Automatic annotation (TrEMBL):
Pfam families: FtsX, MacB_PCD
Protein name, per record: FtsX-like permease family protein
Transmembrane annotation, as ranges: 21-44, 312-336, 356-389, 401-421
GO molecular function annotation: transmembrane transporter activity
InterPro entries the UniProt entry points to: ABC3_permease_C (IPR003838), MacB_PCD (IPR025857), Macrolide_Exporter_MacB (IPR050250)
GO CC annotations on file: plasma membrane
Lineage: Bacteria, Pseudomonadati, Pseudomonadota, Betaproteobacteria, Burkholderiales
Residue ranges annotated for the ABC3 transporter permease C-terminal domain, each copy included: 316-430
Annotated ranges, domain MacB-like periplasmic core: 20-228
Main subcellular location: membrane
Amino acid sequence: MFQYYFLLGVRSLRRNPALTALMVLTLAVGVAASIATLTILHVMSGDPIPHKSDRLFVPLIDNGQPDNYKPGDKPDDNQLSYRDATNLLNSKAGERRTIIFGISLAIEPERKDIGVFNARGIAPTADFFNMFDAPFLHGQGWNPGDDKTGADVVVLSRKLAEKIYGDADPVGKRLTMGGFQYQVVGVLDTWKVVPRFHRIIGSNDGAFSEEDEMFIPFASAIRHEFQRNGSTSCYDDVAPGYQAFLDSECTWIQAWIETRGASDRAELQSFLDSYATEQRKLGRLKRAAPNMLYNVREWLDYMKVVGNDNKLSAWLAFGFLVLCLVNTIGLLLAKFSVRAAEVGIRRALGASRREIFAQFLIETTVVGLVGGVLGLLLAFGALALIAMQSKALTLVAHMDWVMLLTTFALAVLSAILAGLLPTWRACQVTPALQLKSQ
């Protein structure tokens, strides 16, 4: 019977074509608006590294001044000073550790047709690539020994490597950056992490910025006294000179620690507290604020990657869908009311209310499927328009298989919900009254 009712539903689309088209369009617009918004929220709030997000931690140590500080206040900055960052790097905490700061360097390629241009990147330590599962196209990252010596080596992004060297493997070639010669040791493959949890601070578009173009050892950037490309917070005046800046309490470095498992969090927290206690004995960390650890999901929440505005937009979109459903209910009531005579005759011939209910509900499901197809097309169009607004939105305005299936499920479910009242009303038709009126 389902197949028979389904075919009836398909044929019913041709009845009152204007009314049917209006129902389908109303449903499609509501589904498209909610799905487009939900898709962006889904991508923004996803787990960017699910297999290890519970064992990658950001440590925060508050080294701010005690003036106007109240217990429970958040740190004034979410980065670390050079002293704290390097102390954590040189410790035995966790299984891997890396510290990062942003850089921007002038690139001087050998090809004269390109000319000098600026590229942005980061200065991490050797563990960075393994900690965040960076995919390599050619070569590999540098080794810990290069961190100790501050070797002038570089890992390029695929985009930058192709711009300078074309399709050739550039590993082993030398490239002038920031006025110094660097040897290319690796090229990363396309690496689109969404959200870019490891580079929320200091990048142009936060968690949804484009890929970094080059990576050099942290120690090399310090040795050449490269300037920072990112945020810096200083509480006091800093004496002139690069070394004086390093010795200051300015915060400008992001740190990450990877543990063997999520259960090692307590041990890492204990180490962090012990470290802070030792630093207070040296006259530092005067706020005596608690030391915080955030895993990947907690870090995304703490940095408000998905803000209240995004959540409010999703609720408003679903509110619009509810409004479309109310209109669809009205249209279905009008569509089914003109078929009261048909229902009365079927009831007189022995059809039960249950059979009538099933027939009309399946017809609304067909409307939902058609509305889902149209809604999907409208959603793709809406996402394309959203992606045109900025590069950051380009990363999040795309639909995956989960959202593709959700679109159809939402359209069918919406149609079924909208059809419950009109279908129930259709089942209440009294056969005798309809037969008398014929």
